[in-house]
Sequence to fold (366 residues):
Amino acid sequence: MSSSLFSFQICNSQCCFFTCRLYEYHFIAENKSWSEAQRYCRENYTDLAKVFDMTDMTDMSRLRNSTQNQREAWIGLNNNTGGNRMWHWSLPGVEYIQNDSSWNQKERHDNDGYGNCGRKRDKLADASCDHPMWFICYDVKKTLYLIETPMNWTQAQSYCRSHYSDLASGLNQVDGEEMKALFIGRVMSVWVGLFRDSWRWSDGSDFSFRYWDMELFNDKQSKKTCAMTLLNRSGKWSSDECDKEKPFFCYDDKLILINVNKTWEEALDYCRESHRGLVSITNPYQQRWVQERAKNASSPFVWLGLRYSCTLDLWFWINDKLVCYEKWSKEGKTEECGRAVGMQRGGQHEWVSQRDNETYNFLCFK
Fold:
């Protein structure tokens, strides 16, 4: 049982078209331990399910309605890391990159016993997630809002996700001029969207989205190191002992990275002949999935299915769709004949126009 490949529509004044999902979920109604479920998913699909944000939870909910009264199912998140914690930003798609100058080194505690959530005063510091304080939200208009109601970090995150987009996330927000303006005339500490944990996705991706049911989840239950989705509690997550047997969700990736350098035209022909075409990106969620694949490229860029038309004087996707979402680097957009787009392999995975006779790895849609 799987989610629809064509599952949602994007419409605005310029664009209205169905987008192809870059992955599919499959519910497997067989009881297996977490490791057995992982093995099954890897043999038959891609891996145990990973979740990027609430959009993915919506897809899972469609399957959840057909799970025949099952109460819980494994997903691909586990805490079998020996307590090795990593920092993440709360806002999906924002990658945490270490920058020591953003931290107050005197108020930074690298031992796990202190605090695993990030607060901001003059600089970043870690603190106990249970401590109530003001917090700063972010919305789709890229505006920051100071919320002067003390909450713990989890409550603050839930509030921001319900009323705005998320807690302020990323150094461009946390260290930016708009953030500094909120502190003028105030001496305060506020929550921002920074947290660390020792949970990892089965396929090695660093997606930071968490959907814990805080009434049932206890991160200190050392034996319960595998995550499950609670089918009878709105799909929220808890954890259990990994040898317990449960049904599970797999995901099937529809992207394939070709680790061979080709020109853009050669990459286009290869994807059309062997798969369904060069990948197109129509929203930030697809961008995040594509850049996970791009990290494994052997070239500095990977070709996307986006090219400049001299005749029409515009950028267009090879599937004839208009460009509704963009992630150009600051000086990466050169509009001239013979140009196509390469995504950066690392960094912020921004788009840079390249001469189409350059040779890079590329991403096909299966």
Observations:
- The helical segments are 34-44, 54-64, 153-163, 171-174, 177-182, 264-274, 284-294.
- The two ends are 19 Å apart (CA to CA).
- The CA atoms of residues 116 and 196 lie 5 Å apart.
- Confidence is low (pLDDT under 50) at residues 2-19.
